[in-house]
Amino acid sequence: MTAVLQAQGLGKKYGKRWALRECTVEIPAGRVVGLVGPNGAGKTTLLKLAAGQLQPTAGAITVLGGRPAGTPEQLGRVGFVAQDTPVYAGLTVADHLRLGARLNPRWDAAVARERVARLGLVPSHRVGRLSGGQRAQLALTLGLAKRPELLILDEPVASLDPLARREFMQGLMEATAEHELSVLLSSHLVSDLERVCDFLVVLVDSRVRVAGETDRLLDTHHRLTGPRRDPGRLPAGQHVVSASHTDRQSTFVVRTDAPIHDPAWTVTRLGLEDLVLAYMDRRTVAERRVALEVRR
């Protein structure tokens, strides 16, 4: 499996605070990767390290087999669209295309013109007159016309209404299929990721909690509901991701490769949002540690 991004013990520190710590992950090429986690988890820091906009404090990261932004050629292989869709209100759409052509040696003018026409953007209009969705689409157009091998998107639809989000994601899916590029997409909106992503990375408290193909993750995670039970009594092959209890009932989300045959449990499948929320649930971290100690 060819990796588009590899991080080993990666960390970034601002003063005394770690924004990202002990991040180890390998992301395969040719995938649309969803990066999800709560605010402050380190998502933007990881994306900026991948784009070469930040330098790591600890560990190592390679992107497309090289150091991020290590050479002009390496810089040209990665496209980056920041959360605030970096376009300039005082410039026209055509000005943005000319600027893109000057700054990017791999610039594909035909791709830029075709997308602008298909989106109904008027080249002579100043960007300040465009809607939020149109500005986001223009930013995506600039990223695609750079002809990157990896396109990094940091919360590109966070401020858009549902219709504009859907149109943006549809355009992204079409472009990914057409240009055969790898995409690393950060978003809080798991429903959007569920439609477009085939690989998932969950980042919590500056660390990767789980990473893998979405279909595989959904196949190996289950919700167990039954009589109250201590997590330490579960089989060793069932890794407890989250747990909640009432006086008589326990509910666990577990990860396991083995079939679950215990008749005491009602077993249900998880959706992607359920899986993400289970890994983001901080209430059961201490309980998972206790369970591990019991098993030892």
TrEMBL record:
It holds the Pfam family ABC_tran. InterPro entries: AAA+_ATPase (IPR003593), ABC_transporter-like_ATP-bd (IPR003439), ABC_Transporter_VariousFunc (IPR051782), P-loop_NTPase (IPR027417). Keywords: ATP-binding, Nucleotide-binding, Transport. The keyword Iron-sulfur does not apply. It comes from the Bacteria. SUPFAM superfamilies: P-loop containing nucleoside triphosphate hydrolases. Residues 5-230 form the ABC transporter domain. This is ABC-2 type transport system ATP-binding protein. One of its GO terms (molecular function) is ATP binding. The keyword Ribonucleoprotein does not apply. CDD domains: ABC_DR_subfamily_A. It comes from Nonomuraea pusilla.
